[in-house]
Amino acid sequence: MLELETRLAQQSMVISTQYPVMVVGGAEDKVNGCDILTAFFESAGGSAAKIGIIPCASREPTVVGDRYYQIFQKMGAQQVQVLDIRYRNECDEARWLEILNDCTGVFVTGGDQLRLCDLVGGTELIKTIKQKVALGQLKLAGTSAGAAMMGDRMIAGGSSGESPNQTLVELTEGLGIIPELLVDQHFHNRNRMARLMSAVAANPDKLGVGIDEDTCAALDGSGVFQVLGKGTVTVIDPGSLTHTNYPQADAAHPLSLHNLKVHVLSKGDRYDYKNRAVLANSGVR
Amino acid sequence: MLELETRLAQQSMVISTQYPVMVVGGAEDKVNGCDILTAFFESAGGSAAKIGIIPCASREPTVVGDRYYQIFQKMGAQQVQVLDIRYRNECDEARWLEILNDCTGVFVTGGDQLRLCDLVGGTELIKTIKQKVALGQLKLAGTSAGAAMMGDRMIAGGSSGESPNQTLVELTEGLGIIPELLVDQHFHNRNRMARLMSAVAANPDKLGVGIDEDTCAALDGSGVFQVLGKGTVTVIDPGSLTHTNYPQADAAHPLSLHNLKVHVLSKGDRYDYKNRAVLANSGVR
């Protein structure tokens, strides 16, 4: 009986540290505890991890790529490689696809999400990543721009400091890794509640997910994410919306959104994004 | 029948421009349309209005008082006076109370809400204002600090740019004009969603109301407010809260708040804050 309990406890620990997809709100700790990056490293296999870094959202891919290279090397990954892709047509080249096929984890850095999607969207590279993630052969993490691209609708840019309105957010196609979610990042840090609300008004079938810096929505592969890191993940669920003036309102007229459901989730909280419900608290606090 | 309809229409118009209390999010237009200030002026009696300005939240009461003095004079008020109160004991003096008793409207300016409450809280001045508002003898408007003081709990200060947490907001006693509401102002403009959420976590019996700049929650005296102005009023209703880690979480640990109800209200939207429900849209858009 003790043995069974021990095995179940071990199993539960294994499950809770395996994250097929990690959506990181930017500015994750890279110096001290490195909790989120360590969780990705462990998830990708720990000392057996073969990690590929995709820095092409950044205009300084060499600098950014090298920074993460050093981090995962220092953690003791078996192999770390930077997929320093500069042109879109490179994404169909065998040299990169071979590296990718050998990876157990891929980390997508910050930068500009439009640049990222222009470079990799619809290519063999991204198709392979999606396939391997779906098959459980690859763990994927993206931070900042690398988080923004996760949905099939993407916040490409926008402003802050205004009331929610249609001009506050630029929306385009994302990479569709997690189609249900409409992700924003650096969330409370950069005053992005109004722009995420505006994005949700335009996409009321999606779930708005605003992730703070050094914070992560870590998907467990069963339609549930768990919150890791030091901030909050804010979920805006328009499923019970009773009224909006979108898109009838003039572009700059502020939006009305009546009866949104909103959750503020912190470390250990788990959210079922398929069924749109917070799970009973099961996490470590 | 036509006569009855006309009378009802007129009556409904009269009701919709009479606001016993106006809670303004700061930075209201003072130059162009002056929609909100005009609504207050009309509400206080228009050309028959006798307006008292309370500038004592500000450290420049002369400058601020004079600014509003000029505005209401120009609008054509019958009388405008600045209650330039510098010391708390002045609030019990007959000279101010006599002016106040003659007023049809009182406008409380911005500044520092703690300074305001320290000066006027619990004095004859504020008791008289509350009595006269309750009796329908006086219209009250407050902007910025003058809005913050409306509840019986008040956001005295705080920070922004962080995840909701207990250290993000300083709470103290307000003046209790509208006990149900916990008001924040300059809301989306100054990234105050996280601090209002933190304030609501500490006061789950209150309704969080975040008012943008040049925007107003105009109370109609029956437990309903209507939105005026160019921005939004955000209502955070914790009535269906299923879980919070407040106050168990360490002070700086982010907060969890599961199942908040949130409304984004824009011009013309009406909200019943006694029964916590958005009313069918009846406003001018």
From TrEMBL, chains A, B:
It catalyses: [L-4-(L-arginin-2-N-yl)aspartate](n) + H2O = [L-4-(L-arginin-2-N-yl)aspartate](n-1) + L-4-(L-arginin-2-N-yl)aspartate. The active site is at S144, H186, E213. Pfam families: Peptidase_S51. It comes from the Bacteria. InterPro entries: Class_I_gatase-like, Peptidase_S51, Peptidase_S51_cyanophycinase. It is an enzyme of class 3 (hydrolase). The keyword Protease applies. Its EC number is 3.4.15.6. GO terms for biological process: proteolysis. Keywords: Carboxypeptidase, Hydrolase, Protease, Serine protease. SUPFAM superfamilies: Class I glutamine amidotransferase-like. GO terms for molecular function: carboxypeptidase activity; peptidyl-dipeptidase activity; serine-type peptidase activity. Exopeptidase that catalyzes the hydrolytic cleavage of multi-L-arginyl-poly-L-aspartic acid (cyanophycin; a water-insoluble reserve polymer) into aspartate-arginine dipeptides. Belongs to the peptidase S51 family. This is Cyanophycinase. It comes from Romeriopsis navalis LEGE 11480.
